[in-house]
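Justification of computing resources. Each target in the renewal requires a structure prediction run like the one illustrated here; the chain below, 260 residues long, is used simply to show the kind of job we budget for.
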Amino acid sequence: MAPSLTDSHCHLNFPQLRDNLPQVLQNARDAGVGHMLCIGVTVEKLPEVVGLAEAHANIFASVGVHPDEQHGHDPSEDELLRFADHPRVVAIGETGLDYYRLKGDLTWQQERFRRHIRAARACGKPLVIHTREAAADTLRIMREEGAGEIGGVMHCFTESWDTARAALDLGFYVSFSGIVTFRSADALREVARQVPEDRLLVETDAPYLAPVPHRGKTNEPAFVRQVAEQLATLRKVAWEQLAETTTANFFRLFRHARAD
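Resulting structure tokens:
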């Protein structure tokens, strides 16, 4: 039997994928992708995310509000806990800090991040963390709020080895996307070589960031195969071994997920 890959971060409810979902899921099966984590980014679209997980045994859900989201409902810690109290929800997030797209006083973003960490600790479900041009504040808040007590993943990682090591020291996993295949990503590939085997995850962040040789196309979970193959080459292991390792890591981290 071929090894089963797991896409640890995708957005199947986004229209680019939702409108062609049967084919997207078939493509994933054909590529050996056995499980997917569909990520919540707004409260308003949360029913779509959870609905996909309810309808498909190999799809799990997370609940959270993306740090860039400014116009939708901003949930309290208690609201996040109510949303997370569902058997198909295995994580809190996507949450974190993003200083790339938004400027000025971002205290509201930091407070939202803190609420997500507190909710994760309260419900016992790990965090899915996004950080962009905000590594120092992200790590500081993680430490101040005790994020290491619940753990989680630094998703779509693009930061330095020092940032990766600090997250690893807090017990977090590090996930790489199609960016690791980009020609300009030499520094990131060096980080990917160093992450310990038992803390490594793979993802697509679909429908965004399609890996080489699919750049310019809509990304989809099937393309996590190219991410895994690139990482396997970097780390000098068979891609089948890397697939098995990252899938085992996924189910160890997201302990509420059940492999059917």
